[in-house]
Amino acid sequence: MKTKINEILKKYPQAQRDSLIPLLQDVQEDIGYLSEEAIALIGGYLNIPTSKIYGVATFYNQFRFEPKGKYHVMVCRGTACHVLGSLTVLEAIQSKLKIKAGQTSRDGLFSIEEVACIGACGLAPVLNINGEFHAKVTAEQIDEIIETYRKREE
Amino acid sequence: MNINIEVNGKMITAKKGETILSAINRKGISVPTLCYMKDFVPTGACRMCVVEVEGRPNLITACSYPVEEGLRIKTHSPRVVNARKTIIELLLSNHPDDCLYCERNKNCELQTLAEQYNVRERRISGAKNLYKVDQSSASIYRDPAKCILCGRCVRVCEEVEQVTAIDFVGRGNKTIINSAFNKGLNVSSCVNCGQCIMVCPTGALHEIDHVEKVLSAINSNKYVVVQHAPSISVSIAEEFGLKPGTDVAGVMTAALRKIGFKKVFDTSFSADLTIMEESAELIQRIQTGGVLPMFTSCCPAWVKYVEEFRPDMIKNLSSCKSPQQMLGAVIKSYFAEIEGIDRENIYSVSIMPCTAKKFESQREEMTQKGVADIDAVLTTRELVKLIKMYDIDLVNIEPEVTDTPLGTRSSAGKLFGNSGGVMEAALRTAYYKLTGEELKNYKIDEIRGDDKRKELKVSVAGLNLGVAVVSGLTNAEELLKEIEAGRSDIQFIEVMTCPGGCVAGGGQPITFDAKRVKARMKSIYDIDKVDSIKASHQNPEIKEIYEKYFKEPNSEKSHHLLHTHYQKRNVLK
Hints:
Helices cover about 45% and strands about 10% of the residues of chain A. Chain A is α+β, with helices and mostly antiparallel strands. Helices cover about 35% and strands about 15% of the residues of chain B. Chain B contains 18 helices and 19 strands. In chain B, the strands form 6 sheets. Chain B has a 5-stranded mixed sheet with strand order 2-1-5-3-4, sandwiched between helices. Chain B has a 4-stranded parallel sheet with strand order 11-10-13-16, with helices on both faces. The longest helix of chain B has 21 residues. Chains A and B meet through helix 3 and helix 4 of A and strand 7 of B.
């Protein structure tokens, strides 16, 4: 992983503090999340303390600090979805998987991400799991949806 | 250039470029502040200092707004007072209701403001933040539930100490001050200096409590002894209604005996011991081509900083233990032998102006055969608690003298409490060792006072010596960069992490009054002025301990007990 990150850093010669967010995005794009090692390496490169980078990264929803699960559940929390009950959907998923948004289940199968508007308001509330859309989802359907993915692993 | 502004109907003159807050404060008008810190760039985050300016639709923050000609300001109009009160109510809306049990009860800025603005009910009720307290550190306890996110700790850590162990994490109402990856201070780059505690307006930050374990030791069959650091006797007086800076060494010794400590020793004695060892080490390094510049190693926060951020410079640190640990080692060896006490039965307490000393006492290197040399470290604040708990009247009890041996000090040892003091004491003894004569009138003005960086060039017995004194790790880092860039005219550097030295340490009574720190500093200089033993090598007990025990500085025995080694630390930094 270290070499991967160093490869990315090479793309930013003479980088200053203002390169921080693009760098974080590139690293996440490449390895899927921001690991401690990655943040320490970026910090060393830009001369920014890790606590500051962590502070910046946690400000934005887009960054995650755990590897993604095999099935990455994106829950739309945009306005339309919210109005139609995406919060209860999110809560149902969290309690089903026993993890919070931003986390990954212990078996590595599932991870949850809260996203701002996906742009499919007509389908609200909407889920996106590894590119597959689930439209007009209710909390009651969550059990079934998750189980179908689980069955694929059996 | 002067600027005229009108404040509450009266004209006042302000200086161009200054803020409204600084202009009105100079005229004795004050407004409440929370996030504001003197000498720091204002952030205007808390909005407590808002004032009403005629012609402006919004209230503006006095701390960050520069004065302009003709401003008409109201500092306490009903609108302003109402805004401030609402801010306080909002801060209290998710604040724990446990003032009675809070470390900072009666000494809390939030509590004071709530009282001042007559907040008498919980008008706004917000969801409580359920955060875990972080007590992973050996020195510092953090309770994020009490944090009001003013950011003062973050700024001190970054701007004064250049450690930046903590920052704002998360966003909106989920924001919390935390270390990287919320991992806990013990694995962060925190050096335990406690300057964050000194600026915290609430009870969100305080030291890890050692009072309870000291009390249970006193009430056990252990032989409990205590040592007090040079700056303690000039710092506690102010907590008992005495003039800041009053030296209460005698009554403090009496109080410690009343509390139940069997022996009261003076860390200034082991400061003298440190000087004997450190000056010998310095002379040896200079004469034998050793690693220079040599850094003092009395400050455990500085030592940890070097281990974390400057591992390549560990070799520059003096191998001497700090005075606390030297005395700790001597108590459980020399003292135990002459008194015939089993060293495992001794419970050794130290009173320090410092939170990092708690960490230092728990370092692996500071144990002998699995027994720690220092069992508990109380801060100045914790000593104040203990004295109050035992209802000791510090004003009316008779002063007593410290125990011997290990209780007599030179005034050079006392100087350790001030930035520059270690250097001054070391130079006095080094001068004597190199020339065989005493330094004329002892006082070295160039390295005194509360400047954060002082330098001096001296020529002793044909030896040209450059010395530097810095306090605050940002200033230390600056000097290290110069040395890295090739500066070679400095052979000896004293570093103290807290700005101004131990008199402003992270374990001292919490105050924002710079005059108090100055008074403590002056008091130490005054003691030095009148004392008869002015240099460490003149201390009769030091002579005695070398005759009877260590033989000479840097001897095998002293290396075993008084010197240590350091380790590179891999932390998230």
